[in-house]
Amino acid sequence: MPKPVPSLAMALLTATSVTPVIAASAAQPPAGFVGEFWDVASVSNLDAALDVMGRLAPTATFVASALDYPGGAASIVSDATRLDAFLGLDAATLSGAGERGLEGSIFRFSGMIDLGAGVHEFAVGSDDGFQLRIGGDVVGVFADQRAFATTVFSASLADGPQPFELVYFENFGVTGVDLRIDGALADRAILAVSPVPEPVQLPLYLAGLAILGRSARRRQR
């Protein structure tokens, strides 16, 4: 008597050891903004910073969980501060020269944000200058050097994910940067999320189908 053909359910059960066949991941926001750092001799203004960014690869990269450096109560630190110390906990994601100081430095933070349609208020604190682009448009800028100060402005945004880029530069002395949107610190929570199913158990699922196919062929013989 030929052996009974295992059912599809039994084949999958054997192959996956009771693990779900397809595990769809819950949508998660990105770990943070893409952070880039350029170490140069001096940066006199925004045009000089943009020129460097257009010509040179970054000295270091990292993931910025929140746009607030140095973090905490302090708004500024000395330019003698090392990059890894300036980044705080985000230094764990640093790739590149973490031992560099902050004098003559340029930072770019980028990502896709989703704030919802309407008018939003932005407050950028910086020493020295900055430029903020959203959806490809410059919505706020301070192009020269300054002591730490905050520039407040509003912008009307479209619905849905928008490209985001904050550039800030430091020439010499002390430095710091932070961004608040509608009164709240800009962190990874504002980044756009694209849910993508993860077929974690797809190889096991295919193994189950192979078991079923081999059993069917044996029965036909």
Highlighted features:
single chain, 221 residues, alpha+beta, Jelly Rolls, seven-stranded antiparallel beta sheet, six-stranded antiparallel beta sheet, 19% helix, 34% strand
Give an overview in words:
By secondary structure, this protein is of the alpha+beta class. The chain folds into two domains: 1-22 and 203-216, no CATH class; 34-190, Jelly Rolls (Sandwich), CATH 2.60.120.1560. Helix content is 19%, strand content 34%. The protein contains four helices and 13 strands. Strands 5-2-1-6-11-8-9 form a seven-stranded antiparallel beta sheet, covered by helices on one side. Strands 3, 4, 7, 10, 12 and 13 form a six-stranded antiparallel beta sheet that branches. A hairpin with a 2-residue loop joins β12 (174-181) and β13. α1 packs across α4. It is globular and about 40 Å long. Residues 1-25, 195-206 and 208-213 have low confidence and may be disordered.
